[in-house]
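Quick question about two entries, pasted in order.
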Amino acid sequence: MRIALFEPEIAGNVGAVLRLGACMGAAVDLIEPMGFEWDDRRVRRTAMDYIDHVTVTRHAGFEAFTAAIAPRRLVLFTTKSSSSIYDFAFGPDDVLLFGKESAGVPAAVADACDARVRIPMRPQVRSMNLASSAALALGEAMRQTGILPG
């Protein structure tokens, strides 16, 4: 299972997702451009030494990313879906895609995904933090597929 971040904008979120990937044994794909310099100290500060325990792949854009992950299923997490992650059947080779913090993903990227799901939340709020969403999603997907570590 993999986590993919589409054009992430906040170094701290990427660092937290890298740490999540290290702890759970999930590779992380970063789809450029990113909203910060990759050598930004904030990424390493958030990920700490966990960054040495996760496989990170950077992609020059969405087309390069989709070519690299084919034929895996691409599951987009979006507030614009009516399908709950708790009603969705994940597979062990799924790639869990999360959009940029400020805007999600463009329509063309959403259309290229095999499935769109959402994390249920109260209607009074817009969205969860990227790293929190990734943690909930990865935990549920790994639980369903029986690949939780430890």
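Here is the second entry:
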Amino acid sequence: MKRIGVTGHRNIPVEAVGHVQTEILAVLHEHGGALEALSSLAVGADQIFADLALACGAELTVVVPSGDYADGFAAPGERAGYEALRRRATREVRLEFAHATDEAYYAAGAFIADNCDHLLAVWDGCPARGPGGTADIVHYARRLGRPVTVIWREGLVRD
């Protein structure tokens, strides 16, 4: 079974969502066959990836960074979206952090990079806005020698 992980921005400009979806689907179809999708189900790239992977028949493994992770889904509908995808997961990995911190987020991203065969990064190419951000996980995966596919629409600037 091929294992594909994701890291990416939470805030994806509306004009980029279609492009991101198309590129994620292209990678999922390219690998074909039995797939395992690894995601922390954060709003944005993680949830888009998980939803598309499930639609393609992949098994979903959710990597939960901390005991209070779900409390961070504060905007209307965010927690419901997270919980709906989490219920559809085949497996759940819970990291040992009590609280959602930068360290917990980095550990979750590193776990995904450590346990995937290919990492998708919905990334604008800019430095991480905090420890454990997308750029940090991309650099970590590349140091491991993991294939990384960066998905972003050229010329688009993130808020």
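Reply: The radius of gyration is 14 Å. Residues 65-99 form one domain. Hope that helps.
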